[in-house]
Design a protein that fits this description.
Blueprint (H helix, E strand, L loop, with lengths): L1 E2 L10 H8 L12 H14 L3 E5 L2 H12 L5 E5 L3 H4 L4 H6 L2 E5 L8 H7 L10 E7 L12 H13 L3 E6 L2 H8 L3 H5 L4 E5 L10 E5 L1 H13 L8 H13 L4 H16 L4 E2 L9 E6 L4 H10 L2 E2 L1 E4 L2 E5 L6 H16 L1
Helix pairs in contact: 1-11, 2-11, 3-10, 6-7, 12-14
The structure holds pyridoxal-5'-phosphate (PLP).
Length: 340
């Protein structure tokens, strides 16, 4: 099976498993797990922040960040298809009691002017706006990279208006690999950043939230409250640490494979895609005549798994488990599936 459903399907490599098997562990809730501590120190340094907190999932790091920056009744500004809003089970309302104000972006990207337009004066008729969230790269935006200059312009407005700025950086590694901008440079304008080890990097479990010592003290409290206190988590943290050290540069292979796939798909009658839109490892394309679900089913029978993400749109995500030879075979299989 050529599995392009997501970069979350990646499995630990033999070398990663060896690092996990040998990991020193302790009770992390007591702060005693040396491998978790090493991972948190490494991540904080890499992102240029004071402290990092290792948690079980990206949903948890994002939702802890929302809770850290807000009180019930506050307003959070998000892009209309942001993962935090779209794919996290309604958690902003359930766990933080916040209102979400949405900005319609262009493939997930919006401007400082868009933020200014939705801000309201300080008046007791309005909810208190506390937080702006960006996503880089943007999942439903097809892996689109948020331009650093626009992030900095948004950060200036947040500073003027006393708003906090959070980054959902589950795929920040992909943005860094594609642009050669460092993690620390991307993270600098933000108060908190959430990053993920189990997507393209290929670790089995986990995400981290980074920020100032003061904010991370509050984050640890909500992480425990939301059920994220783990014990001998060094076993999974070792996989994350291994992935950080060894799998970031190879993301460029995934990006090249995504381009090859997009160019191949472009040649097929009945498929709409512009390879120029593919900036990282996500390939979104449209089927003009047949439902996306039908094509996905036919492809499954031919040994290719990908996801229908709209009535006529499908998503393929290149990843560590798929070789360039396999990618080169996909357009022909899509064409055959379209004909059958
Ligand atoms: C995958 C993802 C997350 C976190 O997902 P979990 O499955 O909870 O780890 C957060 N944000 C984005 C943009 C993602 O793609």
């Amino acid at each position: 099976m050529i599995d392009l459903r997501s970069d979350t399907i990646t499995k630990p490599t033999p070398a990663m498993r060896e690092a996990m098997a040998k990991a020193e562990v302790g009770d992390d809730v007591f702060g005693d797990d040396p491998t978790v501590n090493a991972l948190e120190a490494y991540v904080a340094e890499l992102l240029g922040k004071e402290e990092a907190v290792y948690m079980p999932s990206g949903t948890m790091t994002n939702q802890v960040a929302l809770r850290v920056h807000t009180e019930p009744g506050d307003e959070v500004i998000l892009e209309s298809e942001a993962h935090i809003y779209y794919y996290e089970g309604g958690a902003p309302a359930a766990l933080s009691g916040v209102m979400c104000r949405l900005i319609k972006g262009n493939e997930g990207i919006f401007s400082a002017t868009d933020v200014e337009r939705v801000l309201r004066p300080d008046n007791y008729h309005f909810p208190k706006t506390k937080l702006v969230c960006l996503e880089n790269t943007h999942n439903r935006g097809g892996g689109r990279i948020f331009p650093l200059s626009e992030i900095e312009a948004i950060a200036r407005i947040c500073q003027e208006r006393n708003l906090k700025l959070h980054l959902d950086g589950a795929r920040l590694w992909n943005a860094c690999a594609a642009t050669s901008i460092s993690e620390a440079d991307y993270a600098k304008p933000f108060d908190t950043v959430s990053i993920c080890f189990s997507k393209g990097l290929g670790a089995p479990v986990g995400s981290a939230l980074v920020g100032s010592q003061e904010l991370m003290k509050r984050a640890r409290r909500f992480c425990k409250m939301f059920g994220g206190g783990m014990r001998q988590a060094g076993i999974i943290a070792a996989g994350a640490l291994y992935a950080l050290k060894h799998h970031r540069e190879r993301l460029l292979e995934d990006h090249l494979n995504a381009k090859i796939l997009a160019k191949g798909l472009q040649q097929i009658d009945g498929i709409a895609i512009d390879p120029e839109d593919v900036q990282t490892n996500i390939v979104i394309f449209q089927t003009k005549a047949i439902p996306a679900q039908t094509l996905a089913q036919k492809l499954q029978e031919k040994g290719v798994a990908l996801l229908a993400i709209g009535s006529h749109s499908l998503r393929a995500v290149t990843n560590l488990m798929v070789t360039q030879e396999q990618i080169q075979a996909v357009p022909e299989l899509v064409e055959a599936a379209m004909r059958s």
